[in-house]
Records
---
Amino acid sequence: RLPSGGMPDAAPRTVPRRPPRAGRVARLRRAGPWIALALALAATTALVVARRDDLAVLLRVDAATLLALLAMQFAYLVVQSGRFHVVLIRLADHGIGFGPWLRLFVLGRFLNLFLPQGGNVYRAVEAKRRFGIGYLSFVAAFLNAPWIAMVITFALGAGVIAVANPAAAVGPVPLWSGLAAGAAAIAAIPFLGALVLPLAPDRWRAAAWARDRLADMLRLTLDSLRDRRYLIRVTAWTTAAFVQASAMIWLAFAALGVPVGLAEAIAFYVLLQVATYVPITPGNLGVQELAFAGLSTGMGGGAVDGVAVSALVRVSGVVALLMASLPLGGAEAVRMARADARDGDVAGRPDPRERVG
């Protein structure tokens, strides 16, 4: 049939549907972190209820200590931002000033409080939109920054503890040797990935694409490790974070009346680094507290001491982040991040033709 305009009717559009199993897997993947969060919070609550009186010390922390912790959390934000900035300008295809990047970094951390991974997407989108930094270049820096930070942090912790307190241990394992092994294992991750990905069949387009991108990122990583000036700068920022955050952990324990030494403060800072970069639940809420409880027990302390310190560090960090981000446009950043997610303008979907660097 021809309509009044003389043109044949257009064929109805069909929208492809995902297979039912794929939809179930996607829903389970989205729900997984929240299920883990519920379980971790339940376990933490059970632990706290069993030793309710031990958390009463949180109410006795004096105002001067709280202000000192807030100041140290502000400083920690700046140091973390500086370390990421060094990696970003080394690996990205465009430059970005420290001031604009500090704003993006702080707002990204702020958004991650409300939208899991939303802050990371916001940083990538804004870096592309305002400074021309390609998504894959940003992803390369996003992966390299925590990788090199953890390698250096673990190595620094192993060296300092081996000299200052070699007898410190977590259960039967000497702490310095455990940290040294951790540094070696983390350093090997990208190289192991480069060995494993070529084993994937070429007919898997996703594996082939990932293999090519990893090869680009590995090339950039190896090139950066030959840059002495870059290594000096990133090591300096990481050392500053190591000293400052270890002191912050020590102060948190002291505020609760729990005496700890240098080795214990370093061990808890290393664990805090891992909890920051390896998210299991949103903000690793519950998981971090359980990890602190386990480390405290392993080092001969009380489990609730670890939970209390984690709570104090978490709350002071969130308060400092809110105080820093709201004047920088935190509410507007939330609106923009939601709009980007709604429009599909996300860094998780880069143009396959775009290359790193």
Note: The longest helix spans residues 20-50.
---
Amino acid sequence: MGLSDLLPGGGARYPDAVLACRVIPCLDVHAGRVVKGVNFVGLRDAGDPVAVAERYDAQGADELVLLDITASHEGRDTLLDVVRAVADRCFMPFTVGGGIRTTDDAHAIISAGAEKVSLNTAAVVDPDVVSKCARRFGRCATVVNVDPRRTPAEAFAQRRAKRHAEGLWVGPGVDDLARAGMWLDRVRPEDHAGELPEDPEGAYVFEVCTHGGRKPTGLDAVSYAERAAELGAGEIVLTSMDADGTQSGFDLELTGLVSRAVGVPVVASGGCGSPWHMVEAVRQADADAVLAASIFHDAIYTVGQAQQALRDAGLAARPPVGPA
């Protein structure tokens, strides 16, 4: 049963009921510190995670996402002491991801005070963990992070064929993907002057990556997000690796494809440079929530200013706490 079965409407895709668009700061944590980079690399220090979380709590953030971005790559558990400290000092609900491989790992995170757990690498390696978490903790507490990158179709097809040969789930066939608009046989206009080339090598696919964006999987993002929802994910956090940290705007094409394909809320992530980008993600790509890091960490905008911008655009959002 998905969100569409539970609600008469709500969010961008359920117009009969109005759900507020959530503004969600994100804390990428590495070695106990909040960090920020561009396209998942070039990390710079952005402060103590507990202090940063307290700041966003005071600003009236709807939620917080805390990701231990190297836990899966380093094969270790999430930083539970940070989770406990955030839970002790903040009132906003928060989601924790990174290094969660089993329901016992998820139980430890929720017991430490998180409202939701976010599965990324583990959901690709062992999709059953999504169903197990949903059964044990509920769909609302089970989030799947999807980190896609635009990948040349030929390279993607090779990895997809390898998965298929290994007996792993690959989703719909190429012809089905093409008919559904998920196999993107076009190139970005801004990359070329004049007429677009007909070279088939210009085709690209939004390919899911894991281990903090280090490993391509041979899975296309739209089919994978659909499957995650079918398995029990109550929410998808969708992070464009191409846009991450650039502050050039959310990937509206990617976000729209996924938002319109799944029956659960989608959080747009990666590339936010202003509150207007948030408005675009909701209006043009049907996002249910918007996530940002750099603009908040660098105090370019406050959470309240983002919420007010959504309201000024005629979208449902929480009133800012104090001056916007």
Note: DSSP finds 14 helices and twelve strands in the chain.
---
Amino acid sequence: MGSRAKKERLKKGRLFVPLIFSFGAVLEDLTIDRFLKDPTKISNTLRTIQSYFKVDGVVPYADTTLLAESLGCDVSTETYPPTIKPWEEWPGDMEDRTACLTETSRVSTALEVGRRLNSLLPESILVGLVTGPLTLCSQLTGMPVPEVLERPELLSAAGKASLTLAKAIGDTGVDILIVHETEVPLQKKDAGKVIARSYAPIWNTAKFYDILPLLMVEQFPTDDAAVLGRAVEGVLYPAGALAALAKKPKKLSLTLPVELLESGPEEIEAFLTQGETAAALQSAKVLLVTTDREVPETVNKERMIRGVQTIRDILARDTGNR
């Protein structure tokens, strides 16, 4: 972790860091493929975004196809989000591919962006992102995530790849690490134990680097929110799932619907100042507020800019500490 000022900011909490990354390609008028491969463009654009929005931090690299492509899957950026073509069969050299991950072009670019932003934005919170073992294994094999739980040997191998990237991201000096999953099925017997074992090495690595790890799940299991919180320490809870938590965690991090960014100021005001969301945001225990997924390239730029500023101003008004 970086400076004393950053440590104090993390300790104080109530950080607002929306997941803005690929949107930088729109600002630079580049194809997403070119943008993802240019560390200079990415670094300069994210610095501009952070300066303009005056949010608490940035995400150096938020591409959830990064690991799959770097391990050898074909990825098409002609659609958004990009599509991944799974392997026809599990490769016999998976260990070698994992060991060489940091030498691949895409991962090297991602790590370079992290290192540059650590110098360019020394007082900003840097949020790293790594695809979690469940999603990565599903991407590589084409199997639905629930079926991945039945293949512990494949899940373990995918977990080692996620861990390798997590360690490399830790070396760049990030402050928070988001482990991103599309879904985390908890209905199957002993699923919580399998999931906890899958994440343990990543969480231990984050502790070693003095980084805060948080699990983000796109298709959040609202009915099993409490179970997920017991399976892994550090979860990004969607605002809509807070009512399902009979007991709030000591440190609460939450996500807001990315669609909220395009809403009008009145609608955003109502969402943030009523019900469970308002109660959570007014709590001193809130650590991080982000979006429930990456801001899409297709977002209306003017509305998004206004939405980010509105949310930022409401959070600042509520806490009086910005």
Note: The chain has a mean pLDDT of 90.
---
Amino acid sequence: MPLMATTTPTVPLSSARETKPPSATSIATGLWKGRSPAAASDAVWVPLISGVLIVVAGALSLATGKPLLFAALGPTAIMIAASPGHTTTRFHNVVVGHVIAFVCAWLAILLLGAGKAPSLLSGQSIPVVRVWASALAVAVTVLVQPSLRAYHPPAAATALLVTLGVYRTNWQTAVSMLAGVITIALLGEWFQRVRLAERRASR
């Protein structure tokens, strides 16, 4: 019985579906599909403005040789960028909130005699007296801020920087930290107004 030749069916090249790699536009559209334009713009605005605020404070710190940029300004910058118009991000709240935290930390150190204890940067274990001073400073800060209409949670980090001995409680440090806070608060106030105006215009 003769063998019948078998052929494999083929698809014409012209009818074959061509696959192309997704473009950057389609990827971005997919990422933000179903999300509001405000959410998409916030994803750019918040990290951008947070970074700008820190860069400005850092540039002034480098120019003056003073600690205008310190750790507590990080969460303050993020709150300003992410929550424009919120009560806790007002100029008054930011500045007075950090001042209250610094004063409460300074008083806690004096009352508990923690000033001579090794600091967090000494490489040793945190002394118990500094732990108690930190707890007291944060608690009093949270207690006093609302009564002065200056509630600003990131200021608690300022209290810890002082009670843990990262910064010394002297006038030079206090003035430098205050200058950094005022810089962030002033520039942040302007950015908040710009952002709120953009949101009103987009409605």
Note: The chain has a mean pLDDT of 84.
